[in-house]
Amino acid sequence: MSLASAVLARRMRLARALSRDVVCERNLRVVMDDGAVLLADRYVARATRERPQPTVLVRSPYGRRQLVGVIFGRLLAERGLQVLVQSVRGTFGSQGVFSPFEERADGLATLRWIRAQRWHAGRIGMFGPSYLGLVQWAVAPDAGDDLAALAIQVSASQFHGQTYAGGSLALETSASWLVLVAAQERRFAPLAMVRALRRLPPLFAQLPLGEFDTRATGGEVAWFRQGLASPDRGDAYWVARDFAAGVANVRAPVQLIGGWHDIFLPWMLEDFAALQAAQHDAQLIIGPWTHTAPGMLATGLREGLGWLRGHLLGAGRPARASGARVFITGDRAGGGWRSLPTWPPPGMQVRPLWLAAGGRLRDTQPVNELASGDRYRYDPADPTPSVGGPVLLAREPVVDNRPLEARPDVLTYTTSPLRDTLEAIGPVSVELFVRTSSPHFDLFARVCDVDRLNASWNVCDALVRAAPGRSAQAADPSVRVAFDLWPIGHRFAAGHRVRLQVSSGAHPRYARNPGTGEDPMTATALRAVEVELLHDSQHPSVLRLPTAAA
User: Fold this and answer.
1) Does residue 175 sit in helix, strand or coil?
2) Which SS3 state, helix, strand or coil, does residue 163 take?
């Protein structure tokens, strides 16, 4: 047992190690179908090194050594699992060109290689978060019956949804990942990555967006530009990297672990819904985490170890583990971890809250009301900033939104203090009617929990990009824009208030809409847009929450 693995195991509260003597066979050569050689390291307890046994495959673009090797190799091997940690094509000594997310062929070739090794016998499992989760979806439908378990954290079967959430580029997350990948193989890589991230903030304001890679890394990055040139899910670039259609055909038991503030949560829940509809063995866990939260990593390791040991080794193997376990945020009385038979949970009802004059959010739908709407001006040259919420490297996902709500380009609608606790678990949506000076605009909606001290804490949100033909035209010059927000699992305490926040941007989390109709990747001109949010009987703008009696 290394010092690093001992410290991490204690901090993550992992089960006691079964072996303190783990060997690592480095730089195993795995030949792909086109002849490219990908490198891999094998982690196994010395006592069982020569014994054929099940294998856990971890495929990573982030290397095989340092923390990656300790967390995904050594910690698992110390607890009875043989692990192969492989560097994907074009990274850390593996041949070929790195082409993000295009991992099906190499993944299947690696599985065939494992089956041919003298040290492997029986079942195969896969493990890992984020990109390490996508590679599991890439192969699972066609992997064969010996693929016995998937343990996926903060990931999804397709990454287009996260990259172009609502039709706008997730700029901060995409830029952060770009510079981290560009710097990770440099000398003194950790320092290089920190410096690269620190250089990002002033770059977010520079145009055109399509040259962001040059400004951030010093040169063109082919895969980044390919993604920017392919904003639609049906574009060939994303079709080759989209594995959602195969989710229902996965035969292996699947464990999914996500966070309420994770960048992939809505699409992870789509994957879980597909597994549920196909009546597959699937387990869902959602905690109060961001994408890179230590708590998520620790829970993923603890739960994933149990899942893999059970399905690969038969060690304390549980019965069919369908259903969900979620952490209810907000009011601590009655919050915390909750077991649910399905997602969304049964018995939840949609509670509409209608927008009204005076910044009110109310239970009654407007009838025979002709109140004027509320107006603001969105200027992409001074964009509404992003505060909190799901981003790749979120520090404080939940913050007091009062400074943001004080801006003239942000509208708020708030209920009266709640008489009873309001519990909301499930999908959230809004339907907004607007008139705008340009057909090219964004809408950002956020639900907040306003406490007794008037602090406004964000719970869930989303942005959508509108354009001619993309949103429904109403009978008059207004436009109806309906979209889903991040899912929710939250208790609004009695005495608190529910608030809906509406604006037209959250920069740099989302790229600005230039307002001109030009391609956002080449646009250099910016045009402000006047927005009127309507909430009368002809334009019943509404927030829909999934609620049940407390």
Assistant:
1) helix
2) helix
Q: Are strands 429-436 and 488-492 parallel, antiparallel or unpaired?
A: unpaired
Residues 6+ apart with CB under 8 A from 245: none
Q: The tokens 């809505």 sit on which residue?
A: 266
> Cβ distance 378 to 529 under 8 Å?
yes
Q: Which pLDDT value is given to residue 474? A: 57
The residues with which 435 forms a beta bridge, in sequence order, are 532
pLDDT in tens, 350-378: 999 999 999 999 999 988 877 789 999 99
**One-letter amino acid of 87:** S
Helix (H) / strand (E) element for 84: namely strand 82-87
Cβ contact 284:339 at 8 Å: no
Cα 353 to Cα 220: distance, rounded to the nearest angstrom? 47
Write the CA distances from 267 to 156, 158, 485, integer angstroms: 6, 8, 12
pLDDT per residue as tens digits for the range 166-206: 999 999 999 999 999 999 999 999 999 999 999 999 999 99
State how far the Cα of 107 lies from the Cα of 109, in Å rounded to an integer.
5
pTM, to two decimals: 0.96
Spell 340-369 as b/e; 16+ CB within 10 A means b: beebbbeebeeeebbbbeeeebeeeebeee
71: Cα separation from own chain's centroid:
21
Cα dihedral sign, 351-356-359-360: negative
Close Cβ partners of 66 (under 8 Å, ≥ 6 residues apart): none
| pLDDT given at position 1 | 63
Return the amino acid letter for 318: P
| The pLDDT value given to residue 319 | 45
Report which residue type is found at 142: D
**What structural domains and CATH numbers belong to the chain?**
3-169+231-321 (3.40.50.1820), 349-548 (2.60.120.260)
